[in-house]
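Bug #2210: token dump truncated for Probable membrane transporter protein?
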Amino acid sequence: MNTPMLFSLVLGASVGLVMGLTGAGGGILAVPLLVFALNMTVSEAGPIALLSVGLSAAVGAMIGFRAGAVRYRAAMVIAGTGILAAPLGVWLAQRLDTNFLGILFAVVLIWIAYKNLMEGRQKIQKTIDGDSLPCIRDEKSGRFVWTSKCASRLLFAGSFAGVLSGLLGVGGGFVMVPALQRYTDLAMKSVVATSLAIIALISLTGVVVSVSAGHFDHDVGVPFAGGSAVGMLIGQALSLRLPAKYLKIAFAIICILVACLMVGKTISS
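Reproduced locally. Full output below:
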């Protein structure tokens, strides 16, 4: 393995480690890392980040599936809308100004940082009466009852995650996790596992679209993604021994710092 590929492997492992420690949202750092370390543009780094996030999310989803936590039918339906929307994001990424994409990415990072900092103070409150939630499960089958209200909420979230995945190279976990928390009666374990399944399906489809369009650097992308999958497993093991509250605060601070660097790089260019 040559030096650039080894460097890409190490970068990917660091992203996977953060993903394992903080959840799938940690993959948001993949694009900035590629931009700063390898001098890529956001549109160039996006497909590589998607492969990294997709593989790491798939590993997490498989672990959740074995534990019976993945609502796989719902994941496939929601991801289906995201898959249909992802090409729109890819199309936009190839046509929008690189500086604009950099600023937009910084805005997303700040928003994620805010959500992580506030999560401990402002938890989403679910109504005691489960019937008032848009998406509830049938008591016998355990499957979602797909009303029009339920479908509109979750399918919109899936579509939004799909567009963002193609546009910025992000998996959309920061969209799907709050959506499943707010609109369903799933336990947090199932929310995370199902979100990982959705992210994996949307992200990997976005990679296929990018590869078919010739917008993917294999020499960087393959080792980066492989390293992220290994880092994800290590991070998940370490996360069991570290306080979740402080991990979220640390992740939020990192997001803010990276956002400032992204803005600075955009302005200087």
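Output looks complete on our side. The two ends are 33 Å apart (CA to CA). Marking as cannot-reproduce; reopen if the truncation happens again.
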